[in-house]
């Protein structure tokens, strides 16, 4: 896990951290210990979207999707090194 940027605002009780997490490492366990119920998680992912034209041809377009999630429940699966939010 690599911390890219962090911001702390004590007056507003806001703590923001931007991290880079490797796919297969113990970072998921550390992340599970940092997350709490009521926290917000922001993430970016890329999705392939297939668009079909009137002639029937399909064109694959890669779209960037930003997601903001409020944590209600979370769990850790050690077998596959996965955090579920």
Description:
9% of the residues lie in helices and 55% in strands. It has 85 residues and is mainly beta. The chain has a two-stranded antiparallel ribbon. A hairpin with a 4-residue loop joins strand 5 (75-77) and strand 6. The radius of gyration is 18 Å and the shape is extended. The chain starts with a strand and ends with a strand. The mean pLDDT is 84.
Spell out the helices and strands N to C.
Answer: EEHEEEE
Put simply, the count of helices is 1
Quaternary form: single chain
Judging from the principal axes of the Cα atoms, what is the shape?
Answer: extended
User: Could you estimate the helical fraction of the residues in percent?
Assistant: under 10%
Integer tally of domains: 1
Rg over CA atoms, rounded to whole Å, is 18 Å
**What low-confidence regions span 5 or more consecutive residues with pLDDT below 50?**
none
Structural class: mainly beta
Strand count, sense and closure of the main sheet? 2 strands, antiparallel
Order the strands across the largest sheet as they lie in space.
1-2
Strand content: over 45%
Mean pLDDT: 84
Structure summary, number of beta strands: 6
Measured between the Cα atoms of the first and last residue, the distance is 18 Å
